[in-house]
Amino acid sequence: MSGNDVLLEVDDLKKHFKVNQGWIASLMESFGSGEPDYVHAVDGVSFELREGETLGLAGESGCGKTTTGMSLVKLHDPTAGDIVYDDTRLSEASDAEIKQFRQNAQMIFQDPFESLNPRMTVYDTVAEPLRIHDIRNETARVQRALEFAELLPAEQYFDQYPHELSGGQRQRVAIARALVLDPDFIVADEPVSMLDVSLRAGVLSLLDRMTDEFGLSVVYISHDLSLLRHMCDRLAIMYMGKIVEKGPTDQIIENPQHPYTQALINAVPVPDPAVGRDRVELQGEVGDVIDIPTGCRFKNRCSEYIGDVCDQVVPPLEAKTDFEQDIACHLYDSAEGYDPYQDMTGSPSASETGEEPESTPADD
Amino acid sequence: MSQLEVEDLEVYYETEEGPAQAVDGVSFELEEGENLGIVGESGCGKTTLAKAIIGILPDAGYINNGSINFKGDDLTEMTNAQRRRLKWEEISMIAQSAMNSLDPVYTIREQIVEAIETHRPGTGRVESDEIVTEMFELVGLDPERADDYPHQFSGGMRQRAMIAMALALEPSLMLADEPTTALDVIMQDQILKRMASIQEEINSSMMVITHDVSVVAETCDRVLVMYAGKIAEEGPVEEIFNQPYHPYTIGLKRAFPNIRKSSQDLLSIAGYPPELVDPPQGCRFAERCPMATDRCREEEPEAHYENGLRSYCHYADEIDTELRPYADDSETWSQTAAATDGGVDE
After folding, report:
1. Which domains occur in chain A, in start order?
2. Chain B: nearest CA to A93, how far in angstroms?
3. Each residue of A130-145: pLDDT tens digit?
4. ipTM of this predicted complex?
5. Can you tell me whether residue B44 is helix, strand or coil?
6. Contacting residues for B213 by C-beta, under 8 A, at least 6 apart
């Protein structure tokens, strides 16, 4: 069902947050005592979202998946890099184009208890985006969106407030609100993790229908790989603000190549007592996202560490010979003939990962 | 004799509309060194059951009937002081939210040492510190961090500190309430693996309360499936997963995606658990069960014993022949969804 037309292109996106924004910090800064620190939440991420496709962003807490998702719908302005939508670079887009973009880019959040305004009725919640974008035919559209979200009969929900609804119903209202503008794509951040077991499958099948019937593209953000395998055409695995592996879902899950992806998939429990799982423990914790290490960010926890090249050269996410997926790891031969060893000692820019946007070689 | 024998336990909560029967006639046994998983939806009574066993029911909760025999003593007959002595030393609990279970104004070391000294008054400071070091190493924390306050730890570290504390006195029974739900997969895997090896070392038994059936599949020997305060089905983990007799078990098992399967049809159980203040007569699951008949709505099911499983379903003896494939089909359940409430609810 997914066509090959690219809907959205993310180009070397970076989002850094200043660590200490208090007044003392700004005072210190103004006296010139030290550079401010930055959290490199997203640090050079590139991917395409195709029409009608479902893409999963996976990784541990703090890997930058939610920041990436929020940047996709312009809830964050990128520090560097760009998003190209409909042949328009968003950094150069006019206000009208941005407004058009916002209408087409919607987000569903993790917690339906927090994401809905408790003082607004279901009707107003779903109608609000229509009012903002000045779209007529309000009642019919609200009704259709609620009906799609299987809140039936829709009129019965119009005057209800979020506190009168169950968690599953609230998440359906959030979905109706996201769909009411007929967007091109939706970012769904852990859409079912707050819901009770028996409700999850229902909301997931609704999200499935959403892609099938509306031809929407969806970016799912989750740490739950079993869920992403169920929902997504393609997966991108993130670690410390970068994508380490990206490709077709079945390929990534069944044949992971990056040592981090392997560890991540290996850690997922299997709901079948007959399946014995080799449990390999990943050493250490996620590294420092303020003072980014040189070379590969995973090197300290990596079981396959091969020496100086890992220490010095940032592995680009690129096509590798013999593999369907893109991998950011020096273990595999580049399909395009990139030789990381040429960037070792004597070429300081290779190991640098500071603020300069062009610091990471071949990371396109 | 089993280490823990729960007999016909009833735990009620006082509410304005009358007592809510959160746990209603639950009986089971736990052998020494055994791991028992307790699964079910929110509000099925699994946490209440654990709280009743360790003796930390909230004020509105009380044990209405039944007994909890632990190593031959009935916990429900004990005074508060007697129960307090058992806590941490014999029975310890790992709560879901470690942040709320650790005291923010004391260091982790102070909290563990306090638990040790309360229960073993003769223990000297040097010995207590040794235990802290040993426990930190067991759960994979740097012992030098023991003098940190809880807020200086990450979520995963706090959960591990909580486990270190629960293990410090080498209890013979651990109650783990969603021990890893708040954590990432990698951290979850590390902690479950550590808990298993520690358990082996001190030969303790464990009750794992979780909604995640894959965690149960990997860590437990036996499973107790609860629904609306009652046991729906109970038995060895292999049988529960391979040949369940209760439609609720089948539904719950199929509600989760499996990472090892590329395409799968998830199943959603329509409707909600019943009110516990005035529970329906007959089978409590009848309202949501695609196979329910008038008999189910009127008559409470007796236990059916087969293949090591104890199943509370009137049609358990027929499920093997005809009903299991029917119950295992997601179509069956979506039709019930449409029939019961026009698809209004999930």
Report:
1. 6-28+35-338 (3.40.50.300)
2. 38
3. 999 999 999 999 999 9
4. 0.83
5. coil
6. A271, B39, B252, B253, B256
Name the residue among B237, B268, B342 with its Cβ closest to that of A198: B268
In contact, B186 and A263? CB cutoff 8 Å: yes
- Judge whether residue B30 has pLDDT over 90: yes
Picking from A360, A263, A229, the residue whose alpha carbon sits closest to that of residue A63 is A263
Whether B267 sits inside 8 A of A271 (CB atoms) is: no
Contact present, A58 and A239 (Cβ < 8 Å) = no
**What CA–CA distance (Å, rounded) separates B36 from B199?**
13
Nearest to A192 by CA among A216, A162, A214, A224: A224
- Element housing A198 (H / E): helix A197-214
- The secondary element (H helix, E strand) that includes residue A14 is strand A6-18
Structural domains in chain B, CATH included, are: 4-220 (3.40.50.300), 244-341 (no CATH)
Q: How far apart are CA B267 and CA A321, in angstroms?
A: 40
Amino acid making up residue B60: A
Which DSSP category does B275 fall into? P
Question: Using CB atoms, which residue from A263, A272, A277 is nearest to B258?
Answer: A272
- Taking 70 as the threshold, does the pLDDT of residue A303 lie above it? yes
B251-264 pLDDT, tens per residue?
998 888 899 887 77
